[in-house]
Model the fold of this input.
Amino acid sequence: MKIYWALAVFAFVVLGAAAVWMGGLNQDEGWYLYAANMVAEGQVPYRDFFFTQGPVMPWVYSAFAGIWKTWGLLGARVFTLGLGVLGIVLAMGLARRLAPDGQKGAAGLIVLFLLGCNLYHLYYVAIPKTYALASLFVLAGFFLATFDSVFCALGAGILFTFAAGTRISLGAILPVVGFGLLLSRRWRALFGFFLGCFGALALVYGPFLCDAGAREGLLAAQQYHAARGGFDLVWTVGSVSRLVRWYLPVFIVLGLGGVGLIKSKSRVEVEQRSADSTVRLGTSTSAILLWGFFAVFAVQMLAPFPYEDYQVPVMGVLAVYAAVNFVSFGMTSEHRSIGASEQVWMVLLVLGLCFANSFGSPLLEKWMTNGQDRFWSLKKEKCELAQLRDVAKRIEALDPDGKTIFTQDLYLAIEMDRTVPRGLEMGPFAMLTDAEWQKMLTETAPDECAVAALSGYSFAICPPKCDERPVVQQMDYWAFLKKNFELVGREEAFGQNATPLLILKRK
Done:
């Protein structure tokens, strides 16, 4: 099996490098990193700046802010992918813990293929969003839950709560695991689990609840999520369809493993064979993985516009469940284990599925082209990250050693290690009233910034509903800006979804 491990590692290195360097820019990268920078400077989320997710990610990332201050967005992506790799390693370890004897190596290898050789998964655990860190906490929590120890249950409760403090929707895992412990009547573990949960909740959210200003901002962040409203059935169904496409090998392996379990004449015997290394939560640890996945999946699908990438933090959980069931395929009292030749064919099947899925991924085309003009493909001259670095150098030449920049494309501010005027900490999702925007454009920006860099996202989104701002109002804002700034450059097809970037200098 060594050759398959080598192939998996080789594919991971190639795909991981592609995800880091070629992966398209995402507006969220900028404001997540910017929040971490502000925490590193001693500012408090919700009180000193608006932030819509839990506080754990800016806390953790603030300790490593020197990475992107030195190496820009590339450094942040490499660091984030490192967290994603730790999550994949934990998923492999979890699969080995849950798989039957004799199948542990195959289960770990299959998880490596399903996650480490999936271009979509690697991209979303490489860009600095909540996904890599949240996935790491979730998988670490489940890994600890496989040990029959009250201290491990305590640690699992802490880690699951940190996951919820990173991405709030992951809080759905807490009642699922707690209910599983209750059903299994493991009272000491249940006590340790809830002690860990409540202790971590006090640590994560207690300081904000005790601070009136932070408490008000935290409540406003939840109102921000609720205010978007609406429901689009076509979008929701499309989200599930795209999720299946991106993780097709996981769902195929899941289906094959499910068929094997249905046909198995002795599922109880299979579970008993791994009882020495697993903890029963309800019926089994594997079952709680599945219920935990579905709990988070359901919560996130209730969002007005449930983007499929919301599910990335729990796809490792589903991959582990699928792999464990798959390697248990056909294990009955007459056929107690899968032979070496059968293991090879199973691994080869997953290898082929994963390689084909990543090589044929639409992401590759998206990263190399900007769509099509009638008959002709619009090829990118360089990848978006390289373009960002070049644009940052051009702006730096206009304002050498400057400290601020007026922009809503915060990945540009991160690349240049600059601040933006207060109120723009969330980039295109900045919560400013019309009066505040007018003051920003006529007073704050001219006073604080020598240059401005504005893409198609600027002034376009009207939070919290996130619908499009009336075009007349957008034009008014541009008119205010032009009184103090003049156009000195233009970059076509810049950043997320390739909009023009206008570079302006103070008159």
Residues 65-98 form the longest helix (34 residues).
